[in-house]
Structures are given as structure tokens and as C-alpha cells.
Amino acid sequence: MGGLVLSLSVVADGHSSIATLGWADLLIIGLYFALVLGIGYYLVHFTKTGDDFFLAGRKMTAWIAGLAFISANLGSLELMGWAASAYQYGILAAHWYWIGAIPAMLFLGIVMMPFYYISKTHSVPGYLKLRYGEAASMLSAISFAFMTVLMSGVNMFAMALVMKVVVGWNLNFSIWVSSITVMIYVVLGGLLSAIFNEVLQFMLIWLGALLVPIIGLIEVGGWSGMVAKIHQNVSGDYTHMWSTLGHYTANPMGINWIGIVFGLGFVISFGYWTTDFLVVQRVLSARDLRSSKMAPIIGAGFKMMVPFIVILPGLLGLAVMPGLVGQSTATATGGASYNEILPLMMARYLGPGLLGLGITALIAGFMSGMAGNVSAFATVWTYDIYRPIHNALTRRDASDAHYVRVGRWTTFLGVIVSIGTAYLVEQSASIMDYVQALFSFFIAPLFGTIILGMLWKRMTAAGGFWGLLAGMGSSIGMWLWVRLDPAALSVIAGSPDAKAMAEDMYRALWSWIICVVVTVVVSYLTKPKPEAELVGLVRGCTEIPSEGHLPLTKKPIFWAGIVFAAFVVLQIIFW
Amino acid sequence: MTDDNRISIWFFIGSLLAVYGVIIVAVSIPALLNPADQPDVVLPGLHAGIWWGALLVVLGVMYVIVFWPWKKKADEQS
After folding, report:
1. N or C: which end of chain B has fewer CB within 10 A?
2. What is the percent of chain A with per-residue pLDDT over 70, rounded to a whole number?
3. Where exactly are the structural domains of chain A?
């Protein structure tokens, strides 16, 4: 996404806006802000304990938790960025929604949630503390908290740029209005408020963006008409997902199937969807174990449909608005860039009122992502960083009310730091790429540490810590190697034809392998915990409640099977 | 969906969608009545604002009725 934002920052200064908003559009946007603040104010009465503030009282239904789970990930940059990628790379971009998400989400629901839920942890670093002790937990918590608040600032700046390019709003106005709104409703209602608003935002994203592909398909004469027009406009195959992945040179992305299946589909996807606390926190809010297992499965069902409002508009753009170019060329020639394809398509099809709804969808996407970041940050900071330090210094635990107060202050300060980061990025846009790269360093190895810890009793605390550290270190090392010597990419990805996208996939794959190898070796050299201490944390030591008595349609495994079958059918259809 | 005493999120969503639908239909009616008022979009003859706005109203009202919070309290008292 960094490329998209960097590019937009180039055009933001001398570019007239893509669309003009009328009174109805502004009224729709204003009503949205009023409602999200109203929900925050209303929910403050239901947020009294730490469980209420940090885990929404663990009372959410599977549907609410599932929609919040998917909404926290559906940011405006996600929408804009992947629509642009679809214009640039074709339907290959849908891999990030299908193989890059669905198997991991189902795995989270069926295999991992029982351990997260039964252990009663309040966070992913919290699970690491129970399984490996303070060192691994603190390493994970500090890296997560630091990166989350920085990412929140990066996304805030990106959203403000989008608003400047699309509707001509002032950067300061967008940054302060949107972030203060998020801060107010999260400070008031904590995760409960964030989740409620995420469900609202999910609906608005769909209803605001869905008209673009519908009218677009009418214009081009359906799917076959769109494919025919794309073939007229560009050479190469932009409408098949797997048949062009035999070799790096056979597709516009410069990647092969090994990178997609193992790098994206296994390591990156499983790393993000099963260990990133931003999304896992939503599932932990479920009211019982079955709901917590169903939530990611429901999320997966909706995630599978997101390409309809993100990838399809990019492909339709390729059919009806050919000739859009990369940002550097667009800036030099004064033309439009494919980075703006989603708002361009909105402006093409959406009249008064509908355009306001579309812009609200983009704003809602940003706010759901930011609320996810700050609520996850507040939880990890309060419970996994502040609490152990407070306890060590005072030699006693504080009251529940104390931690709720700390959580509210942390939310406030987290937003302020995010705003500071947004202005830092404005001064030096390259910071954004570094922040996003930093975030990617932690995800793949953390998945190695957690999945081994959940499934392998012999794994030790030292193994967990050193494996995680080695995985992170190797990821940073590979990233630096390619920056200093671009030819190193051919070594890491295994081919001189590999492009930048392949680097991310293979770097993740190698860092995961290194994490696993170091973890296994160190574990065999150190003494494991007694099994009695692993109850509720590790497979084989934990009794998972049977679902045998449930009717078929109540069993999570049944719905996971349905979603997986639909996923397989989609791969075959778009092969 | 929620705690006993808490208004369902679907009620809030339904209310917002219904109001949005009314606004979008209202602002789209001039183009339906007067061809000279067509918005500057591709396929203006589809009058997407009318039917999409109407869909939002139907969806919104449906949610409001199903998740009307005071109905639940009245049922509990009777």
C-alpha cells in the first residue's frame, strides 16, 4: 500500500479533485459522523470493567464478532490499493482475498481459537506469556504496540491524502476530524464501541461500493463483455488466477505459484490472520467457544466476496478506462493514474447522494481500521507492557478500574502519537515504507512461534524466544540485503525474473523457516515445561469441549467445509 | 444479539440506512422528472439513485422493525 500513498502524495499538491460533493453528499457524511459518536456516547454506560473495555465483555455473538473481524481489516487503503492492483496486475490481485485469507481464517476458527479462548488470554502477547513466559511476550508486545500505533498514523495520513485527491479536503481537516472522532468513541466505549461501529462501517462499505461493479457490469455487457474489452485494451492475460503462475515471466506480477501458495497462502496469510492481535481481538470478544470458532468462519465467507467490490472495479476500469498509467508518468503528463481507479469509477457511475455514500464507505473503511489499531494498542499496552512493569515496581497488582483508566488514557495517547506519525510521514514520505516494512518483519516469525507452541508440547520458553528473535532478525537482514544489493532478490526468490512482490512472499517464507528451525533446535537443547503447566495452552494437554452432540448445521466444522468448498470452486472458475 | 438492556447495533444501522435512502431518493427525483437535470455520470438513464435509495429504505425499515428496542421491553412487561 505504501506505493499507492506515496504516489497520491505526489499528486495531492497540484491536482484538482476527482469529484465534487453536493449538499446531499455532505449531509450523508455528516450523519455518519454523528451516528458513530452517538454510539460511542451511548455505549459508555455499558463499559465498566476491564473485560468490557478491552474485550467487549466477551458477550459478542458469532455474527457481530465475525463482521468486526473482517471490518477491522477492510480499511480505505485496502479498498483503494487493491482496486489499483487489480488494474495493474489483473485478477491475480484476488489471491490476497482468497488463498491469501480464506484457509488461514478457517484454520484460526477450527484449530487455533480453542487455545486462544480456553486459555482466557486477553491478547496474543498474553498467550505468549502463558506459553513461554515474560521475555517472548514482552518482545511481541513491544513490537506490536510500537508498529500498531505507527501504522495507525500512516493510515491516517493516507486517508487524508485520499480525501484531498478525491474531494479536495484539506489534509489537517481530514486528519483531525477523523482521528478525534475515532478517539472519542473508542475512549468512551472501548472495544465494545469499536466493534459496534465496525459492524456499521462494514454495512456502509458494502452499500457504498457495491453499485460500482453493478453499473460497471451493465455498461460492459457482463463478465464476458468485460473480458473481451480488456483483451482489446491490453495484451497479456489479466483474467486468470492460476494458469499464468507457471513462471515469473508469464504474469504481470512477476511471481510464480510457489510464492503465492507458500509465501502468501501459508506464511503471510496465516501470520496475519491468526496472530495479528488487531483482528484476533475481535474474535476473542465472542460470548462462548462455539461463537469464537464461528466468527472467523463467518468472516471468511464475507472476505471471499470482497473482490466483488474491490477487484472487479479495478478490472472494469481496465475495460472502460484504459490507458491509466503509473503515478510517475501521470504526474509528468498531467494524466490520471490507476492508483485513483476506485474513486474514478465512483465519480463515473455515482450521482448525487450515491457519491456521498461511496465517500462515506471510504471514510468508514479508514475509521474501522484505525479503531482496530487503537483498541488493540490500548489492550496490549495496558495488559502486556504496563501491567508487568507496574507489578514489578509496586510488587502488587492494581484494581480493574485502574486498568480501565489506563486503557482510556492509552487510547487517547495512542491517537495523539498516530497524529504525530501522520505529520512525520507528511514531512518524509519514505518513513511510511519503512514502517510498513517493519510491520512485515514480525508477522511471519510470530506465526511460527505461536503455531509450534500450540501444537508441540516439547517446545520450550527459550525455543520460543530465540526462534522469534532469529525469525525477525533474518527478515530484517534479508530486507536490508535487497536494499543494499538489488541483485540479492534473485537469491531470495530463486530467480532473476522475480519482481518486488515476490520478495515479500519469499522473505516471509524464509524468515518463518528460520524461526521454526531455531525454535526446534533450541527446544531440544533446553528443558520443557511439565505437561501440567501446558493445560489449556497446547494440543494434547487440553481437553477441547466436544461438539458431537450438536446438529450438523450448528457445527463450526460444517460451515468451514462449506466456505472451503466455495473457495475451491472460485479457484476453478477463475483458473 | 446484545445484552438484554442494550439497543441492538442493527437498529442503529437500520435507522441510518433508512434516512440515507430517503435522502438519496429525494435528491435523485429531479433527474427522473426532468431529463435536463441528469447527473454527469455514465448510464444516467438507469436512475440508480432511485432504486438504490429505495433499496436502502426497505432494508433500513426492515432492520428498524425487527430490532425495534422498545418493542422488546413492552413484550417483557406484558
Report:
1. C
2. 94
3. 2-541+550-573
Residue with cell 452517538: A38
Nearest residue to A212 via CA among A3, A399, A21, A362 = A362
Q: In whole angstroms, what is the distance from residue A333 CA to residue A41 CA?
A: 49
Mean pLDDT over the full length of chain A: 87
Q: CB-based contacts of A154: which residues, under 8 Å, 6+ apart?
A: A5, A421, A422, A425, A432, A435, A436
Asked if B57 has any chain A CB less than 8 Å from its own CB, the reply is: no
- Whole-angstrom distance, CA of residue A408 vs CA of residue A378: 8
Report the alpha-carbon distance of residue A135 to residue A462 in Å, rounded.
9
C-beta of residue B13 within 8 angstroms of C-beta of residue A205: no
Taking the domains of chain B in order of start, what are their residue ranges? 9-77
Q: Are A297 and A139 in contact (CB under 8 A)?
A: no
ipTM, interface predicted TM-score of the complex? 0.91
Interval A1-28: pLDDT, tens:
444 444 444 444 555 677 788 899 999 9
Highest mean pLDDT among A462-471, A491-500, B65-74: A462-471
Q: pLDDT tens digit string along A148-188? A: 888 888 788 878 877 887 788 888 888 898 889 999 999 99
Q: Domain A2-541+550-573, what fold? A: Sodium/glucose cotransporter (1.20.1730)
Rounded distance, CA A524 to CA A458, Å? 8
Pairs of residues, one from chain A and one from chain B, whose beta carbons lie less than 8 Å apart: 86
A276 vs chain B: nearest CA distance in angstroms? Answer: 26
Q: Is B46 on the interface with A (CB under 8 A)?
A: yes
Q: Does B14 touch chain A (CB under 8 A)?
A: no
Q: Does B26 lie at the interface with A, CB-CB under 8 angstroms?
A: yes
Residue A196 to residue B9, Cβ atoms within 8 A: yes
Is residue A56 within 8 A of residue A285, CB to CB? The reply is: yes
Question: Which residues on B lie below 8 Å from A24 (Cβ)?
Answer: 23-24, 26-27
Cβ contact B49–A207 (<8 Å): no
Which position has the grid cell 509450534? A452
Give per-residue pLDDT as tens, A96-115: 999 999 999 999 999 999 88
Task: Decide if A199 and B39 are in contact by the 8 Å CB cutoff.
Answer: no
A66 touches A300 (CB < 8 A): no
In angstroms, what separates the C-alpha of B12 from chain A's closest C-alpha? 8
Chain A hits for B19, CB-CB cut-off 8 Å, are 31
